[in-house]
Amino acid sequence: MQSEKEKMLAGELYDAADPELVADRESARALTRWYNETGPDQADRRETLIGELFGTVGEDVAVEPPFRCDYGYNIHVDDGFYANFGCVFLDVCEITVGRNCLLGPGVHVYTATHPLDAATRIEGPEYGKPVSIGDDVWVGGRAVVNPGVTVGDRAIVASGAVVTEDVPSDVVVQGNPADVVKELD
């Protein structure tokens, strides 16, 4: 029989009130609280805490506090990742971010979602869908990347965009829902 954590990681319906998952979230809350209390002169401490929080961390990674996430261990960022102030990652499933990605302030990345059927939703189970962001992507401030989305290499997500579908490589998307407005050379 699968544990609730195994169900969550597989993108299946799971019970978020499961004691193991509650403990994992509490651990992530402690790490993010400590991280968010660091000063700009505490680069080594920030690197250590992000290394403990995230599943995988590349070289030259910077995350400006405050930062929030559910579990942390489902977040995988490659070299040259930068997240500006106030980013939120709901990481019930994996969030993978490629090389040289830049996130503006207040970017939200969601893998968590709920059943569409009201009766099932009211019972409380949740599920998730992974998010993948390619190499050399720029996501503008206050953009939202929704569950199950893949953002292609070198794409630009304009500020305030709500990304509900996959984004091809080498395009600019904007709006709610985000649409391609320009192809890049």
How are the SSEs ordered, and which strands pair?
Layout: H1 4-9, H2 19-36, H3 43-53, E1 56-57, E2 62-63, E3 67-69, E4 75-77, E5 82-83, E6 87-90, E7 95-97, E8 102-103, E9 108-110, E10 112-113, H4 118-123, E11 127-128, E12 131-133, E13 138-139, E14 144-145, E15 150-151, E16 156-157, E17 162-163, E18 171-174, E19 179-183
Parallel strand pairs: 1-4, 2-5, 3-6, 4-7, 5-8, 6-9, 7-12, 8-13, 9-14, 12-15, 13-16, 14-17, 16-18
Antiparallel strand pairs: 10-11, 18-19
How does this structure look, described?
This protein is an alpha/beta fold and 185 residues long. 22% of the residues lie in helices and 27% in strands. The strands form 4 sheets. The chain has a 7-stranded mixed sheet with strand order 2-5-8-13-16-18-19. A 5-stranded parallel sheet has the order 1-4-7-12-15, covered by helices on one side. A 5-stranded parallel sheet has the order 3-6-9-14-17. A hairpin with a 4-residue loop joins strand 18 and strand 19. The relative contact order is 0.12.
